């Protein structure tokens, strides 16, 4: 992970009189979400949108536009008028897509203005309670004895659910078969119903299923155990050394968004992240709050694009 991003937990506030400090939206702001309701990206965006609505005195509407691993929502955001009224909650997908797809209708770096990074989210490996494996080691052993016979759910090629599973496959030396859904929510429904054996999902979306008995958790994708779940072992400590994967989230707008609006929106989102009730809701759901400046967000997007170009190339070579 980029040190600049991890080190930035102080909010980047606009100083009084700074450019954009007096801007107010003239109509509802649309926050595009690339997935159906129910996932971590959606839930965190709704917390931020609610606080922005309160502070800006203008409605911030969450608009779920799933499809094509974020390309549907991304196309809408890239083509939107650069007036501050259309934003997009971004995650890993737009930075991995350039390494996975040809002819994407936009350029992640050239067609978006990075505004802020919002959260870092570990993922958990869930399986249906009826599956025979009760630990990561047992899952790996079963997968090696039954190559390609275990399906995992994803939100599509290039989604975080896909990338973490493919990284896990490569490091564990096993074969798994992807079943793609329109988002994490539909995959979890299938897992709870027994139609899907396993899936990686955010802590926020996954642990309630575990607590209700609809899923069994085998491990967490962070390198260290989570403070909220100290008894939950990491995947790395269960025979897959070095395994680490964290979903990240942020907010971006159209590339031509004026600097003064980028600064103002950055300040408003940082305010939402630092609001004690909003922050507590996100932390309790397993998020690490980030915040920071537009420059730090832009640098992180660039680093992620380069990271996934190298990682996906390596994973494809290892799994051939």
What would your notes on this structure say?
- This protein has helices spanning 3-7, 40-56, 71-79, 93-100, 136-145, 160-172, 184-192, 203-211, 259-274, 276-284, 294-318; strands spanning 29-33, 60-64, 86-90, 112-127, 151-154, 177-180, 198-202, 216-220, 246-254, 288-289.
- Strands 1, 2, 3, 4, 5, 6, 7, 8, 9 and 10 form a ten-stranded mixed beta sheet that branches.
- Residues 1-19 have low confidence and may be disordered.
- It contains eleven helices and ten strands.
- It is an alpha/beta fold.
- The two termini are 27 Å apart.
- The chain is globular, with a radius of gyration of 19 Å.
- It is 41% helix and 19% strand.
SSE layout:
Layout lengths: L2 H5 L21 E5 L6 H17 L3 E5 L6 H9 L6 E5 L2 H8 L11 E16 L8 H10 L5 E4 L5 H13 L4 E4 L3 H9 L5 E5 H9 L4 E5 L25 E9 L4 H16 L1 H9 L3 E2 L4 H25 L2
Parallel strand pairs: 1-2, 1-3, 5-6, 5-7
Antiparallel strand pairs: 3-9, 4-7, 4-8, 4-9, 4-10
Helix pairs in contact: 2-9, 4-11, 6-11
Give a summary of the structure in a few sentences.
The protein has 320 residues and is α/β, with parallel strands linked by helices.
SSE class: alpha/beta
Order of helices and strands: HEHEHEHEHEHEHEHEEHHEH
Q: How can the largest sheet be summarized? A: 10 strands, mixed
Shape descriptor: globular
Tally of DSSP helical segments: 11
Overall average residue pLDDT: 88
Instruction: State the end-to-end CA separation.
Output: 27 Å
